[in-house]
């Protein structure tokens, strides 16, 4: 199939500019569009056949459920069988925005959209183009990230084209996304909300609104060897993987730098193309290897924003080995490290302390 590529000027577009995309959605086709988190691959969420096309285009395992995107609070009651009080509070605080809530589903939501689950994940995005596509089409949009399954999520329309050209009907190019990490997924079907996937809306932010919030044990780093089955089925897959082998080096900054420099040297000596994921603060400390800056340690937002793009950049550069500095796991750092660890297939090494000889 030929994929239509359409650029939308965000500060002046009209309903007419989205008419073709709307028609494709209504006819059960696939349209990729920007959201504030990452680019999504949208289809009519209530049409089982349309949802199936999403799985086929992405090569996504059919047990990995899709998030349904809405543009009004009232839509939740069309899709969810029960709406607990905490969900309204979380929606008031974080919608429209990067938070997805999992509810018991109503019958109209097909199992083809929910990966066979009797729950449905719902999000109200804040990006104007995403909202207008939902509104003008008069449909709820099932929209997973618009990457080929297993690849880093797309933060630019070019990333979508690289992965899905010829496999989907249309790509709407609305420029680079603002956040760059997927939404936080929280299960509101239990006694208190439980985070199934960390994201831009942090544990601390939700606690401020509803008090007690849990974290699915399967996504905690200390439980990685214990074989918990994640409640968000998507979290069990190795995601976001660059083509090269990524290793995260943790420890004190100077120890990390020294260790990465040594590993880069070893890789180069072995004839490999070696990449380094550095920060604004440390980029000058690596004289060798292909050094890319993910963002600044002074701004977690910049690191989140740079993550997926940098993983794709190393693919383009042909990096065979990649070493990354680690990041703290407070606040937004929890989501950043969750994605980085998945990209690394949990390969982590701890930098050795330098032994002092003068004591
Ligand atoms: P993506 O849209 O590609 O960012 O992935 C959606 C994420 O939401 C995956 O990790 C899914 O497993 C998760 N998800 C979607 N629907 C549900 C649901 N009904 N229950 C639990 N997790 C869900
Ligand atoms: Mg995804």
Mean pLDDT: 95
Question: What is the fourth-level CATH superfamily of the largest domain?
Answer: DHBP synthase
Q: Tell me which oligomeric state these chains represent.
A: single chain
Query: Rg, please?
Result: 21 Å
Order of helices and strands: EHEEHEHHEHEHEHEEEHEEHEEHEHE
CATH domain topology of the largest domain? DHBP synthase
Classification by helices and strands: alpha/beta
Write the CATH architecture name of the largest domain. Answer: Alpha-Beta Complex
Explain what the structure shows:
With 359 residues, this protein is an alpha/beta fold. It has 2 domains: 4-235, DHBP synthase (Alpha-Beta Complex), CATH 3.90.870; 245-350, Rossmann fold. 30% of the residues lie in helices and 19% in strands. It has helices spanning 19-26, 48-58, 76-79, 85-94, 111-114, 128-137, 157-164, 203-210, 253-269, 300-317, 333-343; strands at residues 4-7, 31-34, 39-44, 67-69, 99-104, 119-123, 141-142, 170-173, 184-187, 194-197, 214-215, 245-250, 274-278, 290-293, 321-325, 348-350. An 11-stranded mixed β-sheet has the order 1-8-2-3-7-4-6-5-9-10-11, sandwiched between helices. It has a 5-stranded parallel β-sheet with strand order 14-13-15-12-16, with helices on both faces. A hairpin with a 4-residue loop joins strand 2 (31-34) and strand 3 (39-44). Helix 10 runs parallel beside helix 11. The longest helix is centred in the last third of the chain and has 18 residues, at 300-317. It starts with a strand and ends in a 9-residue tail after the last strand. The mean pLDDT is 95. The structure holds adenosine monophosphate and magnesium ion. Adenosine monophosphate binds at residues 64-65, 67, 102, 114, 117, 119-121, 144-145, 182, 185, 196-197, 231-235. Magnesium ion is lined by residues 144-145, 153.
């Amino acid at each position: 199939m030929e994929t239509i590529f359409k650029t939308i000027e965000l500060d002046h577009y009209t309903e007419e500019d989205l008419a073709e995309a709307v028609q494709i959605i209504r006819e059960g086709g696939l349209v990729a569009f920007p959201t504030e988190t990452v680019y999504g691959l949208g289809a009519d969420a209530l049409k089982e056949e349309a949802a199936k096309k999403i799985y086929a285009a992405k090569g996504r395992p059919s047990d990995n459920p899709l998030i349904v995107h809405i543009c009004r609070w009232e839509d939740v009651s069309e899709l969810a069988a029960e709406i607990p009080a905490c969900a309204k509070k979380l929606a008031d605080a974080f919608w429209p925005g990067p938070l997805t809530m999992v509810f018991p589903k109503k019958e109209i939501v097909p199992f083809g959209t929910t990966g066979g689950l009797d729950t449905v994940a719902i999000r109200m995005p804040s990006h104007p183009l995403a909202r207008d596509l939902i509104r003008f089409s008069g449909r709820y949009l099932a929209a997973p990230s618009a990457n080929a399954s297993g690849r880093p999520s797309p933060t630019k329309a070019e990333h979508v084209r690289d992965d899905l050209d010829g496999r989907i009907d249309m790509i709407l190019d609305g420029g680079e996304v603002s956040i760059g990490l997927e939404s936080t997924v929280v299960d509101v079907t239990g006694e208190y909300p439980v985070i199934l996937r960390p994201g831009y809306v942090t544990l601390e932010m939700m606690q401020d609104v509803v008090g007690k919030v849990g974290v699915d044990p399967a996504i905690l780093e200390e439980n990685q060897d214990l074989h918990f089955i994640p409640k968000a089925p998507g979290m069990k897959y190795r995601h976001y993987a660059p083509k090269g082998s990524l290793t995260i080096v943790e420890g004190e900054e100077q120890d990390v730098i020294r260790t990465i420099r040594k590993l880069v040297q070893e890789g180069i000596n072995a004839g490999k193309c070696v990449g380094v994921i550095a920060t604004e603060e440390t980029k000058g400390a690596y004289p060798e290897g292909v050094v890319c800056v993910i963002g600044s340690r002074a701004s977690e937002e910049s690191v989140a924003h740079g993550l997926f793009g940098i993983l794709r950049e190393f693919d383009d550069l042909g990096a065979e080995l990649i070493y990354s500095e680690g990041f703290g796991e407070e606040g937004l750092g929890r989501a950043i490290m969750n994605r980085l660890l998945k990209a690394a297939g949990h390969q982590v090494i701890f930098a050795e302390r330098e032994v002092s000889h003068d004591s």
